[in-house]
Design a protein that fits this description.
Bound molecules: NADP nicotinamide-adenine-dinucleotide phosphate
Number of helices: 10
Number of strands: 9
Helix content: 25-40%
Largest sheet: 7 strands, mixed
Order of helices and strands: HEHHEHEHEHEEHHEHEEH
Length: about 260
Amino acid sequence: MAGKTEKEFAKAGYVVVSNASTHRMEPDVPLLNPEINFNHVSLIEEQRRRRKWDGAIVTNPNCSTAILTLPLKPIYDEFGINRVVVSTMQAVSGAGYPGVASLDIIDNVIPFIGKEEEKVQTETLKILGSHTEPADFKVSASCHRVATLDGHIEAVFVELKRNSDPDSIIAAMESFVGEPQRLKLPTAPAKPVVVKREEDRPQIRLDRMEGSGMSAVVGRIRKDPVIGGVKFVVLGHNTIRGAAGCGILNAECLKAEKYI
Ligand SMILES: NC(=O)c1ccc[n+]([C@@H]2O[C@H](COP(=O)([O-])OP(=O)(O)OC[C@H]3O[C@@H](n4cnc5c(N)ncnc54)[C@H](OP(=O)(O)O)[C@@H]3O)[C@@H](O)[C@H]2O)c1
């Protein structure tokens, strides 16, 4: 439904900032997680030329992807990445209202979320890539629905191109800021990635509202003895950073670039 309607709005001259997945992977549609790829906004020019419309469609990532890509960005820039393996534990609000039937999810974990793994595997590379080329590593995702309300938590294993250690990874994550922070956009959190040093964090109930729900909260950064790199846990609020909050931040970016 959103796919058809969004095109009609763009044709009528409106700028559409969408949470829906339909247009995300089209080459002339920006898929923005703006601390990472703010510069992809300029794809709008190509989109307008090709589609002969005055409006625009700009998309947000899938919720798990929005959360995963924030800590991957400083790692990718400073150390390079060969491959990423990620296992998600996703809240029921990710399924929209009324969500998963209570008799299916209470006292349960469901090891399947339709099309979710494919989205994480492809969108991650588009966001971390250039305007025209996806990032040059592979992603394998396993996605699971768990009985929490809000907040997706992900166990991430990263094979690095260049050797590193947990302290250097933490330093890279803590110094990471993007264009939304430099422009002081209202919805931009001060820190896109917050690192927790306690051994039992991040936790869903304690940490999902970090940065008003816009920060990715990382913990348990340690060497991985098998994959040849690091492993960590990342938590993010799926309906804020993973959906509407990111949409609002994207709209603020478009305003800063005078598309709105
Ligand atoms: N929830 C998340 O964590 C999340 C994260 C990232 C992206 N998204 C994406 O965001 C979009 C919305 O998700 P959601 O979680 O907000 O879902 P939701 O709670 O199911 O809400 C969907 C909304 O769309 C409306 N709607 C459905 N069919 C419609 C139609 N034919 N015409 C007009 N309105 C229609 C519904 O209206 P009624 O209530 O009147 O039926 C409802 O308000 C989806 O594309 C989803 O994939 C969600």
